Amino acid sequence: MPKKDTRNTRMKIVNAAWALFYKYGYDNTTVEDIVYESRTSRGSFYHYFKGKDELLSTLSSVFDSKYEELENSLPQDSGALGKLLFLNRELFRHIENSVSMDLLARLYSSQLVSAGDRNLLDRSRTYYRLLRAIIIEGKENGEFDPEIPADEIVRAYAMCERALISDWCLSNADYSLAREGETMLPRLLKGFTAEKK
Hints:
Layout: H1 2-24, H2 31-38, H3 42-48, H4 59-71, H5 79-98, H6 101-113, H7 126-140, H8 150-170, H9 177-190
């Protein structure tokens, strides 16, 4: 039980921080604002984070929370391809509506220059676990080519999503990320299907 409370306290801080970053901007949000919004304490904040900058690397946790929420609402009658496209659409809508492009750009920049954790690539994340389970399901039901390893499909899918997000940031969010995902991901996934048309 204490582990769950610990995780909940950390996630309260993370979720409050990202809501404030989106609403007021990263530079205009203080640690005090985050502590107040999360209904935690300054001691709790500094127990988990050295400072506000360290929160930039927690966006992957926010995405994983969204994936955990979406996992419970996966369309069961749409097959593996439908589930992957559903997850992408919902995540990209979430990004468009809840994560500022500036913060995404900062996260990607920090991952590029970081000598330490590159948490976007952490294979133990909910994101990778869920993708792998759906792709294995797709291989078992004949949607994906049985000769292509599941991890190869997961890697290509994740690379495509990161490329789309990076381009969206580079383009100053001048198009719909969700619509672009709906166009590009089916093209990518078609290359892994059992029957290429």
